[in-house]
Amino acid sequence: METVRVNLGSRSYDIALTHGATANLGAFVRAALPKTSSVLVVGDSNSWPHAESIQATLTRAGLRAGSAVVPAGEASKCLERLAGLYDALYELAADRSTAVVAVGGGVIGDLAGFAAATYNRGLPLVMVPTTLLSMVDSSVGGKTGINHPKGKNLIGSFHQPAGVWIDLAFLNTLPAREFISGLAEVVKYGVILDAAFFAYLESNSHAVRTRDPGALLRVVTRSCRLKADVVEQDEYERTGLRAVLNYGHTFAHAFETCGGYGTLLHGEAVSIGMECAAQLARKLGLIGDEFVSRQTKLLDALGLPTAPPTRWPADDLIAVMRRDKKAVGGQMRFILPTRLGEVKLFDDVPEPLVRTVLESAVSR
Amino acid sequence: METVRVNLGSRSYDIALTHGATANLGAFVRAALPKTSSVLVVGDSNSWPHAESIQATLTRAGLRAGSAVVPAGEASKCLERLAGLYDALYELAADRSTAVVAVGGGVIGDLAGFAAATYNRGLPLVMVPTTLLSMVDSSVGGKTGINHPKGKNLIGSFHQPAGVWIDLAFLNTLPAREFISGLAEVVKYGVILDAAFFAYLESNSHAVRTRDPGALLRVVTRSCRLKADVVEQDEYERTGLRAVLNYGHTFAHAFETCGGYGTLLHGEAVSIGMECAAQLARKLGLIGDEFVSRQTKLLDALGLPTAPPTRWPADDLIAVMRRDKKAVGGQMRFILPTRLGEVKLFDDVPEPLVRTVLESAVSR
């Protein structure tokens, strides 16, 4: 078992990386949360087989384990499903010795995490991500939340987990489209923070794409470490440092909002968003053609899309970007690369340039 | 203007105590939140006249000020009204330079505070309490939340305000029953932390009850300071110290839940709860008859009730107490006095004693 430690003072926690060892999760929860006597296991229709065996594991470890299941998909990140989890916690007679165990992808982590953040003013949370995207991104860093009909993740809070349990064997049964979608965030870490990791992905794209266990362990461990490094330095997204993680995301959120949640997987939107961001950076003269083509080539090699499936009106996309959580005073903000492994925040990008990038995105 | 400073590291803030000087609120907000350019003023039908003039004040100070109004009463602390505030924030195009200004009693502070805690993963919050109860209690300490149909404040989070603005002139128009209700928490501070303050209240009960401005300033300032002292030492209710503030509240929440929100005002329930807690402490031999009678006499002198208006079944009350947020593993926990100005946590009180206290409460 490998471990990535996230150092956040009294809120520090371990990310455990295993392969088919989930029978040991009970011991992990007991060690991370010695005072916990009961848990609510939350999953969705996709993760339910994992969630059920995890519930059994936790019961064997002496924990009173209830469960709640929500429909799979982004639409479950809503007030109604949140209220359902509150009811489930109430039925379990949850108190301060109760923890929430989120078994699933980003939707489950965000929704169950937000329920944990807000029930009884905060219950401990254990993340058990079952998708690549949630293993390398959403399970680490403490962001929880649900969607507002008008914007993604508009409602939420920072609530660090007490532990993250990653079982790479869960990736064996993940549908190809979803697995590949998760690789977008992996590529992102290379672009924004680690040129050597980017080069590793270039050289090993086939092993990664075919889920070679050794490649997976390296990719997931390195991604978690890179994200943890950033979160440790800017837990609440205040200094601006954590914003580097949003590379490609201003575009991506606009694609997801205008397309309706569910048309594009999050990672797919991020992949297209990174392509747009790189194009924008090139137009601003921050980087050259070689950067753009290396990134496009890697995304292609991993099976990721680099252009939106339909031509959404640029006006609509820009309107969403101006209301993005990361916008301030209606000004669009972009994280753009200055060289491989380094990005910076730009808040004075001329709108016509953004428009040009959006309008040429489909025809590329 | 008097100021009570709440020292919480990077989350420190000032409580400003004024009398009829709310025209200066704009400057106070500007000083506390130099980066804020827009505000959502939230009030209810009771506080609306204050909220409207505050909105005008903030506009004059150069802030873009939107507003939202919810019906008065505990029933507004629900997911539906919360969703309404999210919508209002969205309509205001709220971003990280937007603050929420809560103008009203505890319901508005809790509801608007929770919206601020969870919109965009946290907006700054300014509390402008308009009732005595919210001035001396709910505006200070960072607790925000809404009710679950089955339990009070079951959903919420800790979110410290960036500033609290108390205008004692607001108390002039407060209905007598509500003003008196707020005095229960004032008496509580004397009982749990400050015997001299308790004695001051005994000697000045008439001046306090008739809202003498000098007495009010002293009572509110001292109450805020005492609460701030506790919150500074146990911001997240983890060490057990903050639990002293729950004196009378385990009983009170049961009365409020069984009676239905709205039958008793919160302070009335707390007053009855303190009477029950004192009776329980006497039966356990922690205190003598003199303590109980001094407390009863002071509550009486201030016009507060010391017995529930109807006889709720003890079984129902005890069932609620076992599910109280402060309960652990179904064990009831009580904060009980050991002498005037000192309380301790007891988690091994025999249920039959609690039952006796509850059953004799009406007939006293």
TrEMBL record, chains A, B:
Keywords: Amino-acid biosynthesis, Aromatic amino acid biosynthesis, Cobalt, Cytoplasm, Lyase, Metal-binding, NAD, Nucleotide-binding, Zinc
EC numbers: 4.2.3.4
Record domain 3-dehydroquinate synthase C-terminal: where: 182-327
Binding positions for Zn(2+) per the UniProt entry: 185, 249, 266
BP GO terms, sorted: amino acid biosynthetic process; aromatic amino acid family biosynthetic process; chorismate biosynthetic process
Binding-site list for NAD(+): 106-110, 130-131, 143, 152, 170-173
Needed cofactors: Co(2+); Zn(2+); NAD(+)
Subcellular location(s) per record: Cytoplasm
Reactions performed catalytically: 7-phospho-2-dehydro-3-deoxy-D-arabino-heptonate = 3-dehydroquinate + phosphate
CDD domains, sorted: DHQS
Pfam families: DHQ_synthase, DHQS_C
Membrane-crossing segments per the record: none
Purpose: Catalyzes the conversion of 3-deoxy-D-arabino-heptulosonate 7-phosphate (DAHP) to dehydroquinate (DHQ).
HAMAP family the UniProt entry points to: DHQ_synthase
Name of the molecule in the record: 3-dehydroquinate synthase
